[in-house]
Amino acid sequence: MKFFVDTADIDEIKELAATGLLDGVTTNPSLIAKSGKEFIPLIKEICDVVDGPVSAEVAATDYATMRKEAEVLRKIADHVAVKVPLTPDGLKVCKELSDEGTMVNVTLCFSPAQALLAAKAGAAFISPFVGRLDDISSDGLSLIGDIVTIYDNYPDFHTEVLVASVRSPMHIVESAKMGADVMTGPASVIKQLYNHPLTDKGLAAFVEDWKKTGQSIL
Ligand code: G3P
Predict the structure, then answer these.
(1) 184 lines ligand 1 (CB under 6 A)
(2) Is the CB of 9 under 6 A from ligand 1?
(3) Residue 26 confidence class, pLDDT cut points 50, 70, 90
(4) Percent of the chain, pLDDT > 90?
(5) Which of 3, 66, 67, 69 gives 20 to 30 Å between its CA and that of 198?
(6) Is 165 in the pocket of ligand 1 (CB under 6 A)?
(7) Is 129's C-beta closer than 6 angstroms to any atom of ligand 1?
């Protein structure tokens, strides 16, 4: 499973990139607003830090303006994935860009039917929002299972399932069990993956016992 971080905070991105475990970055207009930075230079900066796909989202909702915005975004770097909303206009932009070899991330997916459309439009990534479905007492993870099943039925679909709106380590683990290709989550959730109290307890015991030996490896 590939790990993307869902943030526009360059310091968080640099910190995670240093682990060697970061495969890409996703941003959205809300995250850009939170960063307080200029959008295009910020995406450039992120692209300089991370070699994998960096999602940059269009701001418009009509076809003509989205298409123009996409032209600006895809010129930033070859590894920019233009992010478009799952609407008829968004998928029209997706089909055109994908046919031209640009990666497209189709966002705001909440149903298997929408995911089917995105794959037919040639999306590089479909972003189903598990957390926001859970928020309305729906089952976000069952959507991931449905999309993985549908895509597996059609080997000519090349769209990767990018689990988005991740809120907990279990979202990541359960999605991985279902074979989702990618997850994008906040840095805080990615860091939680390291944690287990038995690791802490076991390590403390090993450190204490090693002291008793009086030895040094170096
Ligand atoms: O970037 C899309 C998605 O990951 C947003 O997540 O937490 O705002 O629902 P969230």
Answers:
(1) yes
(2) no
(3) very high
(4) 100
(5) 3
(6) yes
(7) yes
Distances (CA, A) of 181 to 17, 59, 66, 152, 164: 19, 26, 27, 12, 11
Q: Does the CB atom of residue 6 touch ligand 1 within 6 A?
A: yes
State the residue range of the domain holding 156.
2-213
Nearest-CA residue for atom 9 of ligand 1:
165
Domain assignment of residue 218, yes or no: no
CATH number at residue 96: 3.20.20.70
Which H or E run contains 127?
A: strand 125-128
- Which pLDDT score is estimated for 128? 98
The mean per-residue pLDDT over the stretch 205-216 comes to 98
In a domain, 146, yes or no: yes
Q: Cα 201 vs. chain centroid, distance in angstroms? A: 32
Cα-only R_g, the chain: 20
Is 57 inside any structural domain? yes
Residue of minimum CA distance from atom 3 in ligand 1: 165
What ligand 1 atom has the least distance to the C-alpha of 167? 7
**Number of domains observed in the structure of the chain:** 1
Atom of ligand 1 nearest to the CA of 132: 9
Average per-residue pLDDT for the chain: 98
Check: CB of residue 7 under 8 Å from CB of residue 31: yes
The answer to whether the predicted template modeling score (pTM) of the entire model surpasses 0.85 is yes
Summarised one tens digit per residue, pLDDT across range 62-101 is 999 999 999 999 999 999 999 999 999 999 999 999 999 9
Active-site residues, by number, are 83
The reply to whether 87 falls in a domain is: yes
Ligand 1: distance of its center to the CA of 166 in Å?
Answer: 7
